[in-house]
Amino acid sequence: MGIQRAQRASLALTLNYVAFALAVSAVTTSYWCEGTRKVVKPFCMGPVKVKQTYCIRFNSSNINDTRLVQYIYETGEEKFLMRKFHAGIWFSCEQTVDLIGFDCRSFLEIAPDHERGVLWLCIVAECLYIALLFTGGAMMVIEMCPCFNLINRLKLNAFAALCTALSGLFGMVAHMMFTTAFQLAVQLGPEDWRPKTWDYSWSYLLAWGSFGTCMGSAVTALNHYTKTIIEFKFKRRTIEKKLRIEQKILELDMPEDLWYITSLQEQADQHAALYVNGSEPSCFNPTILDNWDREYC
């Protein structure tokens, strides 16, 4: 059973590390949402030696000559350009005019003025999510240190499970707030930013994957805590029952062999009850539990 406890603690810590890595990756990237914007092509400037699809060409490169009749070749949808963009909590980036790089600006500038409070709450919740997740992981690491006794490790495990579960709640609220803030920006944001098409991207999936892993870590840590408490209470009840039997033996002055048989029968009945209830007994020592004061069997 000690090995199973160590495995549960290691699993909870591993899930916490994975959730923390996914959360940091999601928050520090700007690919929560991506899509395209439909913009009018700018006019090509200077001599045009090769065909350029990202700007509107005139029939003559000398656009300052008023004696020439200028006309363009693009008609209909050809006059428009579909620029890719991606946005995150901190920045929103859009392709440049020549479609080579990206120009970025703060997402706070894009969000409507009366809705920036939602985005600020999202940022605060994400920071609390990462901070509490890190705190829970640190407690799990300290809990695995062999220098602490069982009671102190149980306390650390309980606080670690609480911090991890609370961080998951903050993460869920933060992700939902960003979704709301982005949808408001799409509808009420500046005209030079509103996208034509958009969808959630890989950073958004990382964020929700981090939330799911975080809650898995919290459940595993809580399961480790509750199972240890149940086993601890069972051992305490067994010790108390043994002491009562010994007290009765001393009072009745029973022979030592009869005391041995009675105690062995009591222990066998208790382990049989555990098997009937679907639980596996932690240990069975036919030499009448001389070392019940140990932490693990």
UniProtKB/TrEMBL annotation:
It is a multi-pass membrane protein. It comes from the Eukaryota. GO terms for biological process: regulation of cell communication; regulation of signaling; regulation of transport. Its main location: membrane. GO terms for cellular component: asymmetric synapse; glutamatergic synapse; plasma membrane. Residues 1-23 form the signal peptide. Keywords: Cell membrane, Membrane, Signal, Synapse, Transmembrane, Transmembrane helix. The chain crosses the membrane at residues 12-32, 118-142, 154-182, 202-226. It holds the Pfam family GSG-1. InterPro entries: GSG-1, PMP-22/EMP/MP20-like. It is found in: Cell membrane; Synapse. Belongs to the GSG1 family. This is Germ cell-specific gene 1-like protein. It comes from Onychostoma macrolepis.
